[in-house]
């Protein structure tokens, strides 16, 4: 792999600020970011990428290429938790295996946004409708994870409140805002884009940078939890994203996605949720240990993807698309 891609990715200001956040914790700095600010910034990022995706979707139209991409996204969101569950069952009980499988079947919007910034830096085009793929991939894994718990446990007293599960899966704040912004972008089109461009485009990288600074702080604080996960889960958190990205790239090549879209699709397949799925699992599978599914996704997979994974997947694309 071309090492310059990794260097170029690491030298992006948002990624460097992620390291700065991690360093602050490791050297015991008193750097703190008030809790409401990261929440506000995460909502801004979802609004901005959802709105831009809706505008771009109107431009491209709902073509066969778009439909195939969205179908592939939903397929991966359903099958990733299935095979990862059986891998995890080698070492873990059903509750932990299902919760981690659901985490890795879902996606990380911040990893997707970082990959978008990486493509922009390299002047590689990508289509805005990939945001629709992002929205479609966030929820199915939660449902699959809960079905796996139901199928592989014998606790007759266990009863899911499916209405709460479905509400958490499809109406949680991330999905609701992302889909809502996408629809508003589609309704207002180019006129809406021109009106909101200073807000949704001009501030985007600054907010992303500050958000990744906070993610660095949070990820470093989770490092100590890795002592509980052991070598098996740490290896899983690095190898499964590579496997998922590889399968995603083969699908992307088969349906002939453009290279920029293929990278975003592979990043979606390789990423893991550390917001929506953990919230749902805490509600519906309290037997699962949160320190396992949160720390692996946030302290291992997330930094791996933004530092090494994104350039690695682009390297794979350059090989497959020759």
TrEMBL record:
This is Sodium-dependent bicarbonate transport family permease. The keyword Transmembrane applies. It holds the Pfam family Sbt_1. The keyword Ribonucleoprotein does not apply. InterPro entries: Sbt_1. The chain crosses the membrane at residues 6-27, 39-55, 67-86, 98-119, 131-153, 165-187, 199-219, 231-256, 262-280, 292-315. Keywords: Membrane, Transmembrane, Transmembrane helix. Signal peptide: none annotated.
